[in-house]
Amino acid sequence: MIDSKDVVVVGGGFGGLSAGVALAERGFRVALLERKPELGGRAYSFEDPDTGDQVDNGQHVLMGCYSETLDFLRKIGSGNNLVFQKDLEIQMLARPGRSATLRTARLPGPLHMSAALMRYGHLSLKERFAAARGGLRLLKLRRRDRGALERMTVTELMNQLGQSENARRAFWYPLSVATLNDEPEVSSAGLLAEVLMRAFFSRRADSAFVYSRVGLSELYCRAARSFVERAGGVIARRAVVEGLEVDGGGVVERIRLRDGRKLEAANFIVAAQAEQLIRMLPENLVADPFFQRINQLTTSPIICVHAWFDREVTRSAFVGFIGTTTQWLFNKRRIFERHGERHPGYLSFVISGARRLVDLPNDDLLDLVLSDLSAMIPAARHAKVSKAIVLKEKQATMAPTTDSHRLRPGVATPLKNLFLAGDWIQTGLPATIESAVISGRAAAAAVAARA
Ligand SMILES: Cc1cc2nc3c(=O)[nH]c(=O)nc-3n(C[C@H](O)[C@H](O)[C@H](O)COP(=O)(O)OP(=O)(O)OC[C@H]3O[C@@H](n4cnc5c(N)ncnc54)[C@H](O)[C@@H]3O)c2cc1C
C-alpha cells in the first residue's frame, strides 16, 4: 500500500537535497537516490591524498542575495561554515601593477553600486558614468519589456547601451561570464539583467560575496543527509535510476533502478540534469512537446585548475584577471579555515564559458593558467608548483542562451505526480546553486500541495 507521504527524489545535488530537506520538514518520508558513490552532484569536494586538502570540483561563490540557499544551509546547521564579505570587494588585475578594486560604498542600494562604479579605476571617468547610466537603463528595460531583453544577447545589449570596448572587457564581460557561464555573444541579456537586479542593484548586503570555509561536500552533503535521515528518510548512493514506469492515466507508478529494484511512491521528484531526465522517460513521452523542449537545452563547460605552490603569491582571497584566458584566481589559504596554513600556496583558477578550451590536453591548460598567473603576478614566476589537478566540467551548467527562456520548464510536468528540480528549471535565474535550491523547495511545495 503506497502512503501519500512517500516521495522518491532522484539526484543528490543542491536541487535534490534541498527538496529532500523541505519534504522531511513537512513530515514526508523521503527516499533520495543518487547514482554516484557520493552526494553533491556538480558541487562537490574530495580530499587530495598528497596534501590532505579539500579540493572543490570548482570554486563556488555564493552571494548575499542567495536567500534560499543561505536559509537552506542554516536550516541544516551549516551556516557557520560560510564567510560573508561585509561589502562587495573584488580586486581586478589588468596587468602587473594595474590593479583596481570594485568596492561598494556604505550607502543604501542601488547607490552603493553606482558609487562602486564611480571609483573603479579600470574605467575612464567617462566610461564610469556610461556604465552607471547603462546599469540604470538596463533596469528600466527590464521593467518595461523583459521579453525584449530575453531575446537579446549580452553583446547586443552592450551595443544598445553604448558601452566602450574597455568597459566591456574590464567590467561587463567578467561579470557576465562569471555569473552566466558562457560567452557574451550567446548569453541572454535577460539573465544578466536578473543578476544585476537581484545581486548588484538591490540591497547592499545582496552584492557581497559569500564563500565556504570548508570543502563543498562538507558544507552541505553530510548535514542535509543527516537532516533527511533524522526525519525517517533514506538516502541511497550508487542507486542509478534507469526508468520511470507510467500508467495509462499519466501517473508515475514506480521507478526502475539499474540493479533491478523497483520503488513505488505517491510522488516523484527528478532533480537530475535535463539530459538524465530524458533518459528516464518511457519512449512515448520523449516525443511529448513538454519534454521535447527540455531536450533542446544545451550546456556550457567550466575548467578549474588547482595548483600547489611553495609559497603564497597573493594575499587576496580572490583576484579577477582582465584580458587573459584565466578569469579568476582563488587563494585557498585565505578561504579555508583549516589546511590553508599547512599549504599556503594552494590556488584554484577558474575559466568559465570554456567551450573553446575544454578539449585541450590538461598539460596545455596548466601551462596556460601558469603563464597567465606569471603575466599578472610577476612574483609568482619564482614560485615552484609541486602539484596540479586540472578538472574539466564539460556540462557544468545550462547554457544561458536566449532560447533557454522558452525551453526551461517549471516544476510541474504533464505527469500528475512527477515534479522536477535542478538549476535548469525556470527560476528566472542563471543555472546556479540558488536556482537549484529554489527549484528543489518549489518541487517539495508542489508535492505537499498535491498530497
Ligand atoms: C566548476 C563549477 C563551478 C560552479 N560555480 C558556481 C558558483 O560559483 N556559484 C553558483 O551558484 N553555482 C556555480 N556552479 C553551478 C552549481 O554547481 C550548480 O548550479 C548546482 O550544483 C546544480 O545542482 P543540481 O542539484 O541542480 O544538479 P546536480 O548537482 O547536477 O545534481 C544532480 C544529481 O543527479 C544525479 N543523477 C543524475 N542521473 C541520475 C540517475 N539516473 N539516477 C540517480 N541519480 C542521478 C547526479 O549524479 C547528480 O548528483 C558551478 C558549477 C560548476 C560545475
Task: Give me a quick take on this structure.
The protein has 17 helices and 20 strands.
Task: Give a topology summary.
Layout: E1 6-10, H1 14-25, E2 29-33, E3 45-47, E4 54-56, E5 62-63, H2 67-75, E6 82-84, E7 89-95, E8 98-103, H3 111-118, H4 125-144, H5 146-150, H6 154-161, H7 165-180, H8 189-200, H9 204-207, E9 209-212, H10 216-230, E10 234-236, E11 241-246, E12 252-257, E13 262-264, E14 267-270, H11 274-280, H12 283-286, H13 289-295, E15 299-309, E16 318-321, E17 328-331, H14 332-335, E18 345-352, H15 362-376, E19 385-398, H16 404-407, E20 418-420, H17 433-450
Parallel strand pairs: 1-2, 1-14, 2-10, 7-16, 14-20
Antiparallel strand pairs: 3-4, 5-9, 6-9, 7-8, 11-12, 12-13, 15-18, 15-19, 16-17, 17-18
Helix pairs in contact: 1-10, 1-17, 2-17, 3-4, 4-8
Write a structural description.
This protein is of the alpha/beta class and 451 residues long. It has 3 domains: 6-47 and 215-297 and 400-450, FAD/NAD(P)-binding domain (3-Layer(bba) Sandwich), CATH 3.50.50.60; 100-206, no CATH class; 299-398, Alpha-Beta Complex (Polyamine Oxidase, Chain A, domain 2). The protein is built from 17 helices and 20 strands. Strands 8-7-16-17-18-15-19 form a 7-stranded mixed beta sheet, sandwiched between helices. The relative contact order is 0.19. The protein binds flavin-adenine dinucleotide. Flavin-adenine dinucleotide (FAD) is lined by residues 10-16, 33-36, 41-43, 57-58, 60-61, 240-241, 271-273, 276, 302, 304, 393, 396-397, 422-423, 431-434, 436.
